[in-house]
Specification:
With 345 residues, this protein is an alpha/beta fold. It has helices at residues 5-21, 36-47, 67-83, 96-108, 125-133, 161-175, 195-208, 226-240, 252-264, 282-290, 304-315, 333-339, and strands at 26-28, 56-61, 86-91, 113-116, 138-141, 155-157, 183-189, 214-221, 246-249, 274-279, 295-298, 323-325, 330-332. It has 3 domains: 5-48, no CATH class; 56-158 and 301-327, Rossmann fold (3-Layer(aba) Sandwich), CATH 3.40.50; 161-299, Rossmann fold (3-Layer(aba) Sandwich), CATH 3.40.50. It has 12 helices and 13 strands. The longest helix is centred in the N-terminal third of the chain and has 17 residues, at 5-21. Bound molecules: beta-D-fucofuranose. Residues 65-66, 68-69, 142-143, 196, 224, 251, 278-279, 299 line the site of beta-D-fucofuranose. Beta-D-fucofuranose binds at residues 65-66, 68-69, 142-143, 196, 224, 251, 278-279, 299.
Length: 345
């Protein structure tokens, strides 16, 4: 399939409804209820669209460190194919340098649009300016970039990581409200300098900071990977053993590694050590259902359809909201069993 008219019609209707909605520069993607005028306008717009050749998009993915990332990559590749968008895909395996190289190669190839899932928060100004000067719009996917000039990208499609950290903190406050004494916490952070690690950590800390009972005993980066999560948890246990009451893990892969370390140490994950994780992968849901994880804050990796819709609207000349959030929930042991079979990743 190249350009499916009904799909395009929906995309244009959606964009127009957003425009009519007016003032808001942030949105959660939901299907709007178009009125008749909007439909007529969309039909007219559809007559001059699609362009003569497939849209060419360069996508720089930051790596393949986790189940979340692999699901994210699959979602983007599949959705591009479905939308008839030609994709140049580069995996940087955690290297910002490689991402900059990939972006420059996309600029050289004069792609129509670039999507970037940035490994770290800062250091993007120069290359984004090069894309802008070449007239190529950039969509930021998943993690955010720290740039003073927000015209260097057209939109950012991804989760609110600060809010995820707050959800984890709120859950803990609620669950531990009856527990006496100090609550000693260890934290497995994600990749240093990455926006989910910075913002999840901050949201969690801000939520607990006014309650003196909660104490952060140790906080180390384990790079969002299973192996480093397991190894770092081993170190925490060797040094603090039974003192640890809570683990806050910035993603599921590290939490799953930590569960193995806790069992090796002879403690019961989910009981002796209360575990809160972020992402919501199928494997984490299984552990949630088994009682080995207590709470999972969802972070949705299936951004492909949102990105392709944004690309098509952009090429059709629409203005996008500056920030687009996928919808997300919090899952507990009670909800895990019901949900586990439905997880797509
Ligand atoms: O939570 C983690 C991954 O950037 C939101 O990166 C993403 C994070 C996700 O590897 O599992």
């Amino acid at each position: 399939m190249r350009y499916d008219r009904s799909r395009l019609l929906f995309a244009v209707v959606f964009a127009m409804a957003l425009l009519l909605e007016g003032c808001s520069s942030e949105t959660t993607l939901q299907q709007p209820l178009p009125n008749k005028t909007v439909i007529e306008q969309a039909q007219q717009a559809n007559d001059i669209y699609p362009p003569a050749r497939p849209i060419l998009m360069g996508f720089s993915q930051l790596g393949s460190e986790s189940d979340w990332r692999r699901a994210n990559t699959a979602s983007i590749i599949d959705s591009a194919e479905e939308a008839g968008i030609e994709l140049l895909f580069e995996n940087a395996e955690q290297s910002q340098e490689k991402q900059v190289e990939a972006l420059r190669s996309f600029i050289d190839k004069q792609v129509d649009v670039i999507a970037l899932a940035p490994v770290v928060h800062s250091g993007w100004e120069v290359v984004l300016k090069e894309a802008k000067d070449a007239g190529i719009p950039v969509i930021i996917s998943d993690r955010s970039v720290d740039v003073s000039d927000s015209s260097l990208f057209v939109t950012h499609i991804g989760s609110d990581f600060y809010e995820e950290g707050r959800k984890a903190g709120k859950y803990l406050l609620d669950k531990m409200s009856n527990e006496a004494g100090k609550v000693e916490i260890v934290e497995l952070r994600g990749t240093e300098g990455s926006s989910p690690s910075i913002q999840r950590g901050q949201g969690f800390e801000d939520t607990l900071k006014d309650n003196e009972r909660f104490h952060m005993l140790r906080s180390e980066s384990a790079n969002f990977t299973f192996e480093q999560g397991k190894e770092t948890m081993r170190v925490f246990l060797r040094e603090h053993g039974d003192d640890i009451r809570v683990l806050f893990s910035h993603n599921d892969d590290m939490a799953l590694g930590a569960i193995e370390a806790i069992e090796e140490f002879g403690l019961k994950p989910g009981v002796d050590i209360f575990i809160i994780s972020v992402d919501g992968t199928r494997k984490a849901f299984e552990k949630l259902a088994e009682g080995k994880i207590n709470c999972v804050v969802e972070c949705n990796p299936l951004l492909g359809p949102n990105i392709m819709q944004a690309v098509q609207e952009l090429i059709a000349g629409r203005t996008l909201p500056k920030r687009i959030f996928p919808s997300e929930s919090v899952f507990t042991q009670q909800t895990a069993e019901r949900e586990v079979d439905q997880r797509k990743y």
